[in-house]
Amino acid sequence: MRMRVWAALALAGVIGFAVAQAQRSPEAGSDAEVVAASLLVGKGLFLRGFYLNNDLTYDGAGRVQGSPKVGDWTVAAVNVLKAERRADDEIELDGVRAAIRYNPDTHEFQRHALNDEKMRLVVKGAGDAKQLEEAFAAMFSVGIDPALQRSMPDYWRHYFDPALPWPEDGLHGQTIYPLFGAADQAKDVVAPAVGHRVDAKYGDFAVRDKVQGVIQLRLVVDSTGGPVRIAILKPLGYGLDAAAVDAMRKWRFSPGTRRGEPVATGVAVEQEFKVMSAPQR
Prior knowledge:
This protein is an alpha+beta fold and about 280 residues long. About 35% of the residues are buried. The strands form three sheets. Strands 2-5-4-3-1-6 form a six-stranded mixed β-sheet. Strands 7, 8, 10, 11, 13 and 14 form a six-stranded mixed β-sheet that branches. It has a two-stranded antiparallel ribbon with strand order 9-12. Helix content is about 20%, strand content about 35%. The N and C termini lie far apart (about 45 Å). It has seven helices and 14 strands.
């Protein structure tokens, strides 16, 4: 199912906004670099690096300049609407930021344009159209390509590939008892109990679009009660998955036990995001 989701994003290109809205520069017919830039209009692009700034400048190799703020990939999509030449050695892309939301009914990620989040991306010194295309490949992914997945945090990488090995950590060599309701789970293991819970914070984009729903995380509660190896099991999008993971890292548990001794256990935990209506006066 997830392979179908990736393919849909990579091949369908733009989802959730009208290509008809795009404005191509009248220069495009005579300027090879503007023509190359205009080909980005209508594609389902993601910013490599997951930058949150709306004004970004890149060099001719597609390297971002400065130190822009970084966020989750689900709020780092961009819909390019217009390409134009700003100076002899500068190409400007104008568009809007897009957020990604997971649709649990269709099991697909869907793009939602954030039309108030106007974006301007400037590429300086690309040289010619071929070098500009190479810069764009360094700046953007079209859909969720493998390189974009590899640059994500572990909790997202293990969503896209649950069989991916975890880096060596304190659990290396220990037995982990899964408590996911599987028929073969250990019957003599007592599940961990929540001792301290932290609620995840809403992001501005999610509040604005009134995004709500439940995120499911899978994790290991180690023998000291700490949550480790956190991964997304059922996403929501709009940056809320990252917020849920950040909050989960602050949870503490009474560890699971087997024959009275603390053990590491694999569990699934839900975090709900719900938009609260303003009280009626």
